[in-house]
Specification:
4 helices, 4-stranded antiparallel sheet, 159 residues, alpha+beta
Length: 159
């Protein structure tokens, strides 16, 4: 992102009635906030129902295959109608979302949500971070098994 760009010019939604993006950055592990070498790895933001529907590329593709929406890529009125139908038929709601993403980088995957509040989204994101840390801690000993067997085989040869 260049200095002349802001989050809105690269496609990030703005808060209604403001010129500021509705995004905040947080640490997946709050204990690392004081670490000068750690970066926040979670971004939390608010999306409207329309913006949330636009994020689901597979659903947009499926709806654009319908006869009544075949011109949605060329006609804004048809596109608006398509998104209205998507939102109504699928019960899509706006709300707070989060994704894993380091500052200045693309997200690691799709947005998670919606959540009713910013605090709920943050709690879910940090609990997901705790779960992945538990998996990494559990897998580290498993990763050492080949090393241990290799070392044991090497020692066994010389006995």
């Amino acid at each position: 992102m260049t200095p002349s760009q802001n989050l809105h010019t690269i496609g990030f939604p703005l808060a209604v009635g403001t010129d500021e993006a509705t995004m905040s950055q947080h640490y997946s592990n709050p204990e690392r906030e004081s670490d000068p070498h750690a970066l926040p790895g979670i971004q939390i933001f608010e999306l409207t129902a329309r913006e949330a529907a636009e994020q689901d590329e597979d659903m947009v593709y499926e709806y654009m295959k319908r006869h009544e929406f075949r011109l949605a890529s060329m006609n804004s009125k048809i596109r608006e109608k398509m998104f209205d139908v998507m939102i109504e038929q699928n019960g899509i709601t706006g709300g707070w979302y989060w994704w894993s993403c380091f500052p200045g980088c693309l997200p690691d995957g799709p947005a998670n949500g919606p959540f009713a509040t910013h605090a709920e989204a943050l709690a879910d994101a940090q609990s997901a971070g705790r779960a992945s840390r538990r998996w990494r801690e559990a897998l580290i000993p498993l990763c050492l098994i080949p090393v241990i067997f290799s070392a044991a085989a090497h020692v066994w040869r010389y006995l």
